[in-house]
Amino acid sequence: MSDTTTQVTDAQQASPPTGAQRKRRLWPVIIILVLAAAIIFAVLRNGRSNPQAAAPGEVRATPNIRTALVRQGSIGQYIGALGTVTPLATINLYSQVNGQVIAVHYTEGQIVNRGDPLIEIDPRPYEAQLQQYQGALERDQALLKQAEIDLARYQEASEQKALSRQTYEDQQQIVEQYRGSVKNDVGQLEYGKVQLSYCHLTSPINGRAGLRLVDPGNTVFSGGTSAIVVITQLQPISVVFNVAEDYLDQVRSEITQHKSLPVELYDRSQMRRIAIGKLLTLDNQVDTSTGTIRFRGQFENRDLALFPNQFVNARLLVRTLRNQLLVPLAAVQHNGVNAFVYLLREGTVHLQPVTEIAAEGNNAAISGLEAGDVVAITGFDKIQDGAQVAVLGGHAGERGSGGSGQ
Fold first, then answer.
1. CA neighbor of 365 nearest in space, from 78, 81, 76
2. Total domain count for the chain?
């Protein structure tokens, strides 16, 4: 009997646990995991709510910053726009006569002056035609002179009643006919001279010749649609750029006072200044599709740095603001639509709202501060309102400090 009881007990111990038994064993594990997750969440939440809180036993280091002085000075108020270099004159020369090209006097890309020979077209047919016109003129001039002599004789005879009045009046009309013939011949002769001049193409402006479009031996025709040489004026040259209509009143008020507004040109990276010129004129209407108006600036282009159809960045100086409070542009921070700076007082920075008036280069004109105030220009990721800071070196822009604030 005891053996049977022992076998039953061993069988019960060897059998797998039931579902209720498994649940009772998992409860302690679940509780431990929940407690661990709650601790981790609390630690992370505390770290996020106070990211600058120092760890227990840790001494938080004072952030190092660089500063600059608020100073008074002048700053330019500029309007920036993308512009295109546009020649003041581009001449496409076409053939006015039919003929064979016998000479090309320019080389590709050559700088030519007004009146320099460019292309020669065979002039012989037009020289022969001109000679015909000259001969016709001389013939009709001789006939006119003879008719005038006869008219003088008929007049004398008519006064003496030796010749009928009708014959005298007929002779008068013959003289008028010859005079008309002479005028026609003179016109034909002048036309022939013009046609002959078209055989010798010269440059109408000072500029640069383009790539060669015809060679000696080619035949050109009057009324052709293809130019045989293109001349582009380079000195002076202009730049056309579009400005938003919002700035129109500012620019127009300066122009009406007969002020010459400077225009600066920079390359694509806006790092290198290419040229300095002046505003020449502006268009007579606003482009309704873009809300802009076209401006044209003129540049001497002595070094030929500006090339037709080149894209440049134009900066138009509208006015110069004087006696402004200037700070480095890096000092001005933005929080949404508001601008502010960190003002340094007795080793502590304070957030100070400001109004940004204008910006030029690395400087900004602001209001809301006083000359001589000290503002932070670095370390913004480590400081906040009321934080203690340590200043590295002197103030940027101060004499002897090596700053670039001047």
1. 76
2. 3
What DSSP string describes 128-184?
Answer: HHHHHHHHHHHHHHHHHHHHHHHHHHHHHHHHTTSS-HHHHHHHHHHHHHHHHHHHH
Claim to verify: residue 97 and residue 189 sit in the same structural domain: yes
- For residues 265 and 246, the answer to whether their CB atoms sit within 8 Å is no
Determine, yes or no, domain membership for 10: no
Q: pTM here? A: 0.66
Domain termination residue (choose one: 212, 229, 246) = 229
3 torsion bin: left (phi>0), alpha (psi -120 to 50), beta (else): alpha
Residue-wise pLDDT for 96-135, tens only, equals 999 999 999 999 999 999 999 999 999 999 999 999 999 9
pLDDT in tens, 158-213: 888 888 888 888 999 999 999 999 999 999 999 999 999 999 999 999 999 999 99
Strand order in the sheet with 117-121: 200-202, 117-121, 99-104, 219-220
pLDDT band at 42 (very low <50, low <70, confident <90, very high): low
Segments forming the whole domain that contains residue 280:
71-86+234-391
- For residue 258, give the CATH number of its domain: 2.40.30.170
User: Range with the lowest mean pLDDT among 44-48, 213-217, 346-350, 379-383?
Assistant: 44-48
From 77, 347, 92, 110, select the one nearest 207 (Cα to Cα): 110
**From CA 173, how far away is CA 171, in angstroms rounded?**
5
Residue 241 burial class via C-beta count within 10 angstroms: exposed 0-12, middle 13-18, buried 19 and up: buried
Compute the distance between CA of residue 33 and CA of residue 50 in angstroms, rounded to an integer. Answer: 26
Is 5 a member of any domain? no
> What does the block give as tokens for 84?
């295109």
